[in-house]
Structures are given as structure tokens and as C-alpha cells.
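To start, an entry.
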Amino acid sequence: MMSHIDIEITAESGLELLTNDEISRLSEHSKGGEYELFKKCVLAVLTSTQVTDEISYHEEQLKLFDIEVLQLNKGVKLKLKNAPATSLVDGKMIQGLKEQVFSVLRDIVFLKQELESNSRIDFNSSNGCTNAIFHILRNAKALRPGCDPNMVVCWGGHAIPEFEYQYTKEVGYRLGLRGLDIITGCGIGAMKGPMKGALIGHSKQRISNGRYIGLTEPGIIAAESPNPIVNELIIMPDIEKRLEAFVRLGHSFVVFPGGVGTAEEILYILGILLHPKNKDTPFPLIFTGPKESASYFERIDQFIADTLGPEAQQKYQIIIDDPVAVAKATLQGVVDVREYRKQTHDAYHFNWQLHIQWDFQEEFIPTHDNMAKLNLKADQPLHLLAANLRKAFSGIVSGNVKEAGIKEVAKHGPYTISGDVKIMNQLDALLEAFVSQKRMKLNADNYVPCYRVIKPQNKPQPATV
């Protein structure tokens, strides 16, 4: 049984520099509709040492946990009731967790005030979404003008075997030796490994200001709590804004083995790169894993070939069991991006030129009706097919580990997914591979699919006379 403790902590993440009026409004907002969300996200940070993606665990802890925002003339203080004792050492909260707690306050409560009071922020248009994402990242001090590009986005699963985790750590180490910083989804597995490896690489190179950025969103933070190496935690409003933040911030991208969440990320970026307006934009994208995982990328590559075709396959390279080659290719990609942005006068710290359509920005809410209505037919532009396939995987992620999706599936049964027979056959085969390889959830032995792939029957051909 986890022990708990009451504690008060003072502000970090810039919230110590607020006016009395801002603190008053902050306290008022923390008692409103965002309060439960705020509590859930803070608790997820404080229980990050508990390796689980079961929502029921966090729900039980939430019944005991409470937060009060205290007003002080010198800043903000949080009073935590029944905080997990594992978040403290000798009666003091671990500094990294303390910083992450105030990052939650900044992004969930304070930023909501800022966005509501800023009439120029518009989440209902494509340009508005990109501007809002810029505002969120700037408010989190994630944008650093004048710095050379060096941000590597690492995607991959949280439910991976030990040998894959060790490989991600070795790749991160090779990236860190080359002075590259890391952005991940902030959780465990293929998100923690690259950061841990890079931390060691930075230490050897005497780099003391390494950046380990964790991008998450409220629906998934409980299932993928921030790992302790994250020193810049940013909570985006939803999964679509989170994905756009990745591609706007990153300079080179490395994808490790994962499950449906990783497939969602792959389809998201391929859909963007397949748009004609992005045809000539350099975007380094590498798939990699140990030799034992070669079949994983063979399956992913085959799925992309049979759904999006050879044009999509040309957008990435696959490097198996060679961390040094991955690091060198990643660094070369960063150099190419730097030269391109220098020539086109684009910012190093935020990729303004990349064209992202509304289909990739609008929040997709995976209800049964929305999942059933997805257009998964081949007779549409490739970037739109990729967008819709991305939404299908997003729905499965929600049904696996997000509170809203789990409740939706419990109430109405599995999501149904339908489309062209060839696409459905490939989708079903890929999902079956994820299940057999235990990549759906951490508790994979008891996994019950939250989806059902509907395969249309081939219509009989009329007899010829």
C-alpha cells in the first residue's frame, strides 16, 4: 500500500513572477471546471515511479488526493494533501517532480487564462492552431531564438521489451555525444531510454544544459506519466496539438518500435510530408531498432507500402541495429535542416514553413460514431488517407489507455473500423502483430481488443456467357 503525506511547495516554471491579480485569478480558475483535470495531471507526475498504464490505479489514488492553490504576495504556493510519499526525500519534494508539478499548473490552469483573454488565439482555424501552439511553447520557454538546430524527436512505445529499451538508450547516448537534445512523449520505454542515454552522453561531453523535453496531453499523461529525466514538461491541449508541437519543434526524427501510438505518430508525419506543398521540405525521418526487432519494421514498411504506396516509403529510411549510423544520419539531417532554413529565412526554433492541413489539427474525438465514419478507402489523396488512418490508431490508443476512451468502450463495446478490403486486411494484420508482440499495453497478458476491424466481402463477379 502506498503511503501518503501532506506538503506545501512554492512556485517554479515562471509562476513565481506573477502579479497579485494574476495569482487571484489563478486561484479562482483552479477551483473551476479545470480543477479535476489539474488534479489528475499533478497526481500523474507524483506517481511517475509507479510503472502502470491502468487508469483504475490512478482513479483510486485520486480519491485521496487534493490540491489547494494558496495566494502569496511573493508568488504561488500549492498545498498537496495525501501526496505519494515516494515523491519526497527527507521531507522535501524531489526537485524534478516539483518543477513538473508547476509545469502542469502553468499549462492546465494559467495558460487557459492566457488563451481565454487573448482574442488572437483561435483553435478553430488552421493558422489559429499553429499560432496557439507557438504561444504555448513560448510561454513554456521552449522556443530559444538564436540557437543552432539540435532537437531530435524520438518516438516509440511505452510497452516494449528490455532489449528494445536498451537499444533506445544506446541510440540516445550516441545522440548525446554529438551534442543533440531530445524531445519525446515524456513517458517510459522508448521515451525514457533516449533521454537517459543522452544524459550520459552529455555528461561525458561536459554539456551541463542538455534539454530533455517531454510533450504530453491531459488524456494520456496518467498512462504515460513523465519520466524523471524530463526537465521541460509541456502539456498540450490535445493529441493533435501535441503532434503538431513535435513537428514544429523538432529538427530530426527517430522512430523506435512501439504500438498503436507509434503507428499514429508515423501516419501523422507521413500524411503531412505527402502533401504537395511539403514535397521539397527536408524532414529527416529514421526508423530504427535492434536486430531482434527487424520484423517489426518490415511489418510497418509493408503496411505503409500497401496503404500509402512507394511515395510514402521514400519519406523515411530504416536502419537496423546500428546506433552510431542512426546518430550520424540524424546529425546530418539536422545540418540539412539548418541549411534549408537558413536559405529560406525560416526560424530555427519553430518550423513555420511546414504546411499542416486542418485534418491533422482538428481534435478527433473517438466516439463509436466517429470511428465508424472514418473514410478508409483508397480513392482519396494519400495525405488524407494517412490522416484518417492516423485517427483510427488514435481511437485505439484512447480505448486502450485514456479514461474517456476506456469508458466509451466499456459502455458501447469495441470500436468498429471499416474500409476497403485491402486496407482492412493490412490494418488487421498490423494490429494482430501488435497484440501478439504484447505492444498494446503494459498488462498485455490480459489484453482485450477495444476495436473490431470489419472486412468487406468481395462481391461475386457476374458469370460470363
Summary: The chain is about 45% helix and 15% strand. Residues 4-117 form a domain with the MCP/YpsA-like fold (CATH 3.30.1850.10). The mean pLDDT is 89. The CA atoms of residues 261 and 397 lie 6 Å apart.
